[in-house]
Amino acid sequence: MSFLLCIPIILPILGGLGLLIAKFKERIKRQIYVASIIIVDMILSLIFIFTVPDQKFTLVQFTDTISITLKVDGMSTIFGMIVSILWVVATFYSFEYMKHEGKENKFFGFFTMSMGVVMGIAFSANLITMYLFYELLTVATLPLVMHSMDQKASSAGRKYVIYSITGASFGFVAIMLLMNYGVSLDFVYGGILDMAKVGGMEHLMLAAFILAFFGFGVKAAIFPFYSWLPSAGVAPTPVSALLHAVAVVNAGIFAITRVIYYSFGADFLRGSWAQTVVMVATIITIVFGSSMALRTKHIKRRLAYSTVSNLSYMLFSLTLMTPAGMVGGLTHMLFHSVLKITLFFVAGAIIYKTGREYVDEIEGFGRSMPITMVCFTICSLGLIGLPPLMGFTSKWTIASAAVESGNPLSYAGIGALIVSALLTTLYLMIIVIKAYFPGKDLDVKTLNKDVKDPNMLMTIPMIALTAVSIIIGVYPTPFISVFETIANGLF
């Protein structure tokens, strides 16, 4: 039964390759083909997540300690569910949006392949397997970032590759050191270090952790390795929404969670100088990202900088090196994914229907695009942290974990969260106010006479995700209970 774990990975990869080869000329046939693969892959992923827990399947065995092996555990379950479900929603949104972008066979080919690669990260049983798929993700998503192939896209693609290769180099060195000083490279809750070998080499292994944190942290946009993410906003909005607000960046969060809690071990890292270094980096990034979001007028870039900040909410919580901190990080990873993909969908809807991309250009859209702006408003309030919406619960969980940790630096982190929340209120509510309360001297009816909500392929995903954000915000307990089980090493 465990061999079935490779199907959610292989199916979309082969399906995407088939799309690049077949090159459908009729849009409806291409949409049926892509939707069938994505939906089937989601169903199979969810089935295998719940039917083959803790079973391993080895694709390739290189040595006694090095293999390409798949396994589903608690972390796989969370990341796999986020990716597989949101990918389906983003796919239907993309069917409409990509009409005005062109090159749809190429786009959906790499879009579909990327899903399989991300599922490979989710189902990785060890560091080697995760590293392989982690780097394949750069290869699979690069054509999506560079989709338009203009000067901006080419520049963004080069930056994405340079940053990713740099991170890969850091991560590779850390893995080699873990190979020498660990009992294996498998993911084991509590860590894999052989303390008999580590004795006397603690500082070397702490330095290795720093390399791993910033190496895998490139995709999590940690300061100073963040600038690829706003630059990647030149990609079509579905790419920004899914790959650079959910899949790629969450792959970074997922990898760092594995590194802290399943490789080096939180007990080894807690209280060390290495913990101080990474916590300071996350605190800086939280405030920096929110500050840049407020300064940026371009809507998608504003949301991208918001993502930079919110990713470090998760990283700050994870670097507390406690079970409660892990719960806070996982909670915000899920909640932020739902909220931010919706906000990007709204930005895409505005661009698709009007061609306008800047905050100052959307005055009066609250009346012209009522569905779109209601979704934006609700999800903005959720990201700000207004109770009882999703963001309040995840931020409260992070702050509570920080207080419980007893680390003096955690209070600086709480201060950063408060400052960021205030900045988030400003950079999101400015958009809402302009949409609903345009200037008195502005002839909104004339200016926005052709502005309206997009069709159902784009509005239904926004409505559905907004509804989900409300429901989970009001009833978060089942999700937090699962996260607590994972953080205590029981799943």
Structural class: mainly alpha
Helix content: over 70%
Number of strands: 2
| Mean of all residue-level pLDDT scores | 91
Nearest-angstrom radius of gyration? 22 Å
Question: Total number of helical segments?
Answer: 21
Q: Give the termini distance in whole angstroms.
A: 19 Å
Give the overall silhouette: globular
What multimeric state do the chains show? single chain
Unreliable spans are none
Strand/helix succession: HHEEHHHHHHHHHHHHHHHHHHH
Approximate strand percentage: under 5%
Largest sheet geometry = 2 strands, antiparallel
Widest β-sheet, arrangement of strands: 1-2
What does this structure look like?
Helix 3 packs parallel to helix 14 (323-354). The chain is mainly alpha-helical and 491 residues long. It has a two-stranded antiparallel sheet with strand order 1-2. It has helices at residues 7-22, 27-51, 74-97, 104-122, 127-145, 151-181, 195-198, 202-217, 228-231, 237-264, 266-269, 273-295, 299-318, 323-354, 365-368, 370-384, 390-405, 408-436, 444-447, 456-474, 477-487; strands at 56-61, 67-71.
